[in-house]
Amino acid sequence: MTETSDPKIDKEQESDPLTSAGATTTTAATVVVVDGEDPTGAPHGKWRNGLCSCCEVLCKCTFWMALCCHTPSVAQLMTRMNLDYSGNEAKPAAVRRTLLAVFFLSAALSIISYGLAALVYLVYILSRVRFHMRKRYGIGGTTACNAIGDFCMSFWCGCCAIIQMNRHTHHENVYPYDALAPDGLDIEAPKIPNPYAVSTGPTKAQEVI
């Protein structure tokens, strides 16, 4: 018995530019990876910059926002990664409220507990952002031990972790950090696709391909 291939399938595979270019896809939020990068230009499998490379942006707003304004910086990263105030993936409507929700919740916790509860909350949401970012970009594992590592990293090296994540998702020379934007990015920067969003056409990130 001889096996025959379906010419229709072969034709579709040949006409697929991603397949022919050796691209790979991941099932989580259908991330398309071409030459080790996704459509937003973020590397997969490793961090774009090391944890201790924060001094490379010493004269940029990225550094000083992470150093002096932890809460807004983390809230921007949460918005960028499509997370709500609790650090979980959410629908676009909830994501748009993340910045204000984090700000007011942090302020309320600071008043109630003299800042202690707000610090715990900040470390928690920062560790959640790091966990989701590592999961999306295939950096390390997603076990409980990895989650604990994210928490420790957020507690001891919070500023460096914020800077590292801010620089990872987009090319900083192409899409520089914007301290006034809800997600810390210019309006023209390709957005990270929200898995809960209703698709109405190709996103800007997909158009980059």
Topology:
Layout: H1 7-15, H2 17-20, E1 24-26, E2 31-33, H3 61-68, H4 70-80, H5 92-95, H6 98-113, H7 116-136, H8 144-156, H9 158-168, H10 204-208
Antiparallel strand pairs: 1-2
Task: Explain this structure.
With 209 residues, the protein is mostly helical. Helices cover 49% and strands 3% of the residues. It contains ten helices and two strands. It has a two-stranded antiparallel sheet. The radius of gyration is 19 Å and the shape is globular.
Key features of this structure:
single chain, 209 residues, mainly alpha, 10 helices, 3% strand, globular, disordered N terminus, disordered C terminus
Mean pLDDT: 83
Q: What is the total tally of β strands?
A: 2
Low-confidence stretches: 1-29, 205-209
| Shape assignment | globular
From the alpha-carbon coordinates, what is the Rg to the nearest angstrom? Answer: 19 Å
Give the CA-CA distance, first to last residue.
42 Å
Please report the number of helical segments: 10
Give the helix proportion (percent range).
40-55%
Our estimate of the beta-strand percent is under 5%
Q: Taking strands numbered 1, 2, ... along the chain, how are they ordered across the largest sheet? A: 1-2
The class by helix and strand makeup works out as: mainly alpha
User: Oligomerization state of this entry?
Assistant: single chain
- Elements, N to C (H/E): HHEEHHHHHHHH
Q: Biggest β-sheet, characterized? A: 2 strands, antiparallel
Summarize, please.
The protein has 10 helices and 2 strands. By secondary structure, it is mostly helical.
